[in-house]
Amino acid sequence: MAVKEEFRCSQFDFCSAFRSHICDSFQDAKDCYSTFVDYFAQCLRRDDIDKRPTAAGYRVILPGSLSDTFLFEQYKAGKYVPRTALIHFSDRFDKKDILHAKLILLPVHHKGHWTVYCVNLVHEQIDILDSSPWPTEKQQKEYHADIAERIRSRLNNALHQYTHGKFTDFSKWGFAFVPVPKQALPNDGGFFSMMFLEHYDGKKRKMDINIDPLLGSQIRAQILYYMLFHKINRERPLPHEIEHLAPPP
Fold it and tell me: Which residues does the UniProt record annotate as the domain Ubiquitin-like protease family profile (predicted)?
């Protein structure tokens, strides 16, 4: 793929992706790097501010890297340190945005699969958006049983600490599996999770568009196009053979 060595964004926080990462993540049957999930979330936050002011006050999209912090013991020996989670908030979010939000969305990566956990303050529950076509309901529950309690407890504590105890206590809220489109390709979880971040209507508890699982490759292409040409991508202009595909201003 003819792109520069890396693309970067400066809005909210810094991230970069090398050409090889793009190739590794956006080919069929490849798992999506967390860098792209975080960058996509940054693009959405910028668009919420610029184009969807009602959404900007309604939802907060947290970085997927926060879930790595919450699930620290899964990947490294040692203990979870609560103060490390606060770093993800202080550099990105105003406390007022957190306190006014009705949806707190967290992309979660676990055992090679992406899902979205949504603290739904409209319905006072934690919605789980999982695109995996699990063979049985038991398998789905077993997968999430390994992480759900920790995410709920640690996210609740982090939000309480960051807002000095003002955020709603959801430590005892139940989990609800929301019916969502199921991926047809085995490694589409990251891209379906990005679509869920953008299109989940927490009030109606469904997507605000139709997502066709058979179009997984097209969804990957659309997401890459959106991110490459987004205003927060600092590595512009792109090479001519790509730049000429940019949307009109």
Answer: 1-200
Q: Is the dihedral of CA 129, 147, 114, 13 positive or negative?
A: positive
Residue 117 CB-density burial (10 A; 0-12 exposed, 13-18 middle, 19+ buried): buried
Predicted pLDDT at 84: 87
Residue 198 is encoded by which pair of tokens?
A: 């953008």
Tokens of 162: 């960051």
CA distance 234 to 143: 38
Bridging pattern class, strands 125-129 and 175-177: parallel
Q: Would you say domain 6-243 falls under CATH 3.40.395.10? A: yes
Q: pLDDT at position 88, please?
A: 86
Token pair in block for residue 156: 């609740």
Q: In degrees to the nearest 10, what's the CA dihedral of 222, 223, 224, 230?
A: 110
Nearest to 131 by CA among 181, 82, 96, 201: 181
Strand partners, 38: none
Residue 99 in this model has a pLDDT that exceeds 90: yes
186's CB contacts (< 8 A; 6+ apart) are 29
- The enclosing H or E element of 144 equals helix 137-145
| pLDDT top residue among 8 and 67 | 67
Of 18, 25, 48, nearest in space to 109 by CA: 25
- Other Cβ atoms closer than 10 A to 45: 22
CA quadruple 144, 161, 200, 234: dihedral sign: negative
Q: Which helix (H) or strand (E) holds 126?
A: strand 125-129
Q: How many CB atoms lie within 10 A of CB 94?
A: 10
pLDDT, average across residues 70-96: 81
The residues spanned by each domain of the chain are: 6-243
